[in-house]
Amino acid sequence: MKNLFKYIFGVLAILVIIIACTKEVGLYTEVEFEISETHVADGFINTPLATSITVTPEELVEGYSYSYFYKINSGEGYYQNESGVTIAEGDKIGLSPLTASMNYIATKIGDHSITFTAEDTFGFQEQVTLSYVITNVPVSWTATGPTGQVLLGSSQDISITLGSETTTTGVTYERNYSFSQGTGTITSSPSGTSEILNEFVSITPGTYTLTYVATELGQTTLAFLLKDSNGQEILQTVSFEVINKLDTTAPVITLIGGDISLAVGDAYTDAGANANDDVDGDITSEIDI
């Protein structure tokens, strides 16, 4: 009888332990939670994009706490908190309160995918994935100047314009003027100061007037390269031909032979023509009949 009593008591004790453990496990699993986010999806390289994540539990239970971390699936960049402190990828950050506001700063253009993981005290996790589309900071960069033909030694105006649409972004710019064909001098107008060529020089938004003087005959191409502090480069060119004399008179074409009299059915051979130009001389070979 005593053994039976001990057996029954042992079974009851085990049941109590099992029930207690079940309740304990139930405590861990019953408080489910969700993670949600809001973010600015489209932006520019090295420009902060507002982002926030929020954990919403089914109920608030004393002793529960939450943290988050992120993993970059594609793209390159990092997050900063509202104080400007960098949040490293993979670092667990406590959520108190249950919302965190931050800025994403992309360091590479293209599509970015980033997964945030929220975790509670007992290791249960929920995830949400954010997508960003990152482009270069747009800017206008134009160069206008002579086209066609210009006289050797003549002065030609060239206008360079860097737009001011990115003034508030913090982006800075450098320019590099060079000759990809031909030679000449480039000076600032109206000061006459020689422009620095073949190296990058700081430039701010505005319109700049340059004076070009050709020193060599032939095809000439001036290259105007702009580079921003994010590494973006934009190239504009101005091309023309430098000559000794402007060709404004049309060639003179003279038919060979006098009046021609033919009977019906007679064969005829065209005697041809001569062509002369006041600049290019004899251009008979260029006649196309």
UniProtKB/TrEMBL annotation:
It comes from Cellulophaga baltica. InterPro entries: Ig-like_fold, TraQ_sf. It comes from the Bacteria. This is Uncharacterized protein. The lineage of its organism: Bacteria, Pseudomonadati, Bacteroidota, Flavobacteriia, Flavobacteriales.
